[in-house]
Structure formats: C-alpha cells, structure tokens
C-alpha cells in the first residue's frame, strides 16, 4: 500500500461539515477540527501507578487527539499519566519536532481544559454550555449562542472516541468502572 492512501496532508479549505451548515458557517470557517482529550485504562507497574491515578481514582493514560470533521485522526499523543493536565499535554504536543502543527490562520475547537492560546478556541467561561442547560429555552445572547454551536461541533468529534471505545472495550475506562470522555 502506498502511503498517500494512508496519510493525508492537512487540508486548508473549510470542511464541508462546516461550509454546508448555516449554524456553523461562516462563524467557524477556519476551524479544521477539534482537540479532544480522553482517559483510557492503563496497566502500569505498581511503583508508578500514583502518577497514572486520575482525578476519579482510576489508573489511566490521558490521551490527546486532533480529530477532523470527517471523523479522522490527524494527530494522537498517548502515554501521558492520568494525573496530567490537558494543557500540559497540549504544550508537549506542540513542542515536539514531529508534533501537532496548526496551519496559520486555522484553529481547532477545544474544551476549557486547554486554556487560551493561538491555534484553538474554547467556549466562554461562566456562560451556559451543556445541551441540557439549553433544553428549556434557547440561547439568550451571542456568547450563549457561540457556546451552543461550539458544543454541537465538539459532540460530533467526540463520537470518534465513542466508536473506538465501543469497538475496543479495553480502551473504555468507563467499562472498567472508571469514567467516560471528559
């Protein structure tokens, strides 16, 4: 098999999933995907288990992935301890010689765990964000509307990990009584 069939170079055009949806275009026209973190079960030697203990008490790896809107992985970084913060893992990914690269003028959507930095946008803090918060009434202002649309894009991306964890149960920390995607 030739590598051109396996590896795709980043595409600079607006993804069709955004371009063809008036809820997202033109607002997210330069968005190329999402940064998503998840925890997967880790089976590590007893002498280092403390570092892999996550905030819920399980032994996990914290995995960072950049995922495109056609549900493809464009970057994955594994091996970080479950106790590691998302922003620390992202800094590592961006600093590696063959690490995560974000094209000039493009960005990923990310959750608030990644902090603020060029190359990705997070929802407004302190503003309604989760879908259940919008169930009784829709967004009341521009920030809430942005957060609702941001969440709608992130949910489509997080399906990738849901699919993987369903197919490969060993990846699903929740299957072992730990917890789900963060």
Could you outline the blueprint of secondary structure elements for this entry?
Blueprint: H1 16-19, E1 31-41, E2 60-67, E3 73-81, H2 86-95, E4 107-109, E5 120-121, H3 142-167
Parallel strand pairs: 1-4, 4-5
Antiparallel strand pairs: 1-2, 2-3
**Major sheet:** 5 strands, mixed
**Total strand segments:** 5
Q: How big is the Rg?
A: 17 Å
Percent helix, as a range, is 10-25%
* Low confidence ranges: 175-182
Structural class computed from helices and strand pairing: alpha/beta
Family: Belongs to the HARBI1 family.
Keywords: Hydrolase, Metal-binding, Nuclease, Nucleus
Cofactor: a divalent metal cation
InterPro entries: HARBI1-like, HARBI1_dom
Polypeptide structure, described:
This protein has three helices and five strands, in the order αβββαββα. It has 182 residues and is an alpha/beta fold. It has one domain (15-176). A hairpin with a 5-residue loop joins strand 2 (60-67) and strand 3 (73-81). The longest helix is centred in the last third of the chain and has 26 residues, at 142-167. Its cofactor is a divalent metal cation.
Short key terms for the protein model shown above:
alpha/beta; five-stranded mixed β-sheet; disordered C terminus; HARBI1_dom
Briefly summarize what is shown.
Keywords: Hydrolase, Metal-binding, Nuclease, Nucleus. It is built from three helices and five strands. It is α/β, with parallel strands linked by helices and 182 residues long.
């Amino acid at each position: 098999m030739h590598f051109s069939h396996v590896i795709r170079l980043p595409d600079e055009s607006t993804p069709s999933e955004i371009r063809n949806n008036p809820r997202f275009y033109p607002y997210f026209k330069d968005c190329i995907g999402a940064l998503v973190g998840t925890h997967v079960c880790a089976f590590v030697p007893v002498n280092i288990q403390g570092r892999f203990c996550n905030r819920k008490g399980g032994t996990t790896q914290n995995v960072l992935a950049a995922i495109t809107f056609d549900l493809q992985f464009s970057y994955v970084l594994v091996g970080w301890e479950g106790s590691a913060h998302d922003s620390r893992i992202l800094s590592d990914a961006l600093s590696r010689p063959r690490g995560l690269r974000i094209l000039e003028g493009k960005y990923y959507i990310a959750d608030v765990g990644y902090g603020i930095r060029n190359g990705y946008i997070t929802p407004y803090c302190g503003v309604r964000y989760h879908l259940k918060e919008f169930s009784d009434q829709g967004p009341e202002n521009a920030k809430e509307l942005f957060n609702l649309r941001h969440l709608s894009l992130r949910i489509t991306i997080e399906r990738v990990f849901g699919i993987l964890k369903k197919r490969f149960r060993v990846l699903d920390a929740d299957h072992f009584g730990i917890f789900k995607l963060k």
